[in-house]
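Record 1 of the preview.
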Amino acid sequence: MMANDTYKTISDLSEAIFTEKRSKFLAFAIPVRTVEEIKEHIDFYQKKYYDARHVCYAYMLGAERETFRANDNGEPSGTAGKPILGQINSNELTDILVVVIRYFGGIKLGTSGLIVAYKAASAEAIAAAEVIEKTVDEEITVAFEYPFMNDVMRIVKEEEPEIIRQFFDMDCEMTLRIRQSLMPKLRARLEKVETGRILEK
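->
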């Protein structure tokens, strides 16, 4: 069975330039995690390329790829944001923002020409990026009494979760992060630790 707990994104910023009938399209693919971050990037590009005719974009967020948006920024409806989003989708990417800035070259491209140009520009920016696979991770917090520290540490050593936070006193607490498909086994083992209890968020 394929564990469905990975997703694809890009490692860092990539860019491309596409020219069509003297219109110039500057495309940027940017890894992002939050809508706030996306807003900052869009503001940045709008200020930097303030003299451009259109700053269009699309983004996709989250491992489930349920948070997304496409923006035509004044281009005819569906000619910019949608083709950009289409490229994000066909590459099965998420946690990505693709911004395409258009400088008008004096020759109208028509709606089909615009769709092709925005698609090509975003495809090139994505092609220039390094696509990486990330795992969907979950966190778990376990509380236990100090004498049982060794039991917990043995599980951590064997299951290899990432330790996010730990607090040791008479009562100890540890927050661990592990790939989603490995969580049930980790949780089951932690639940067996004497005095151990899982703290639900």
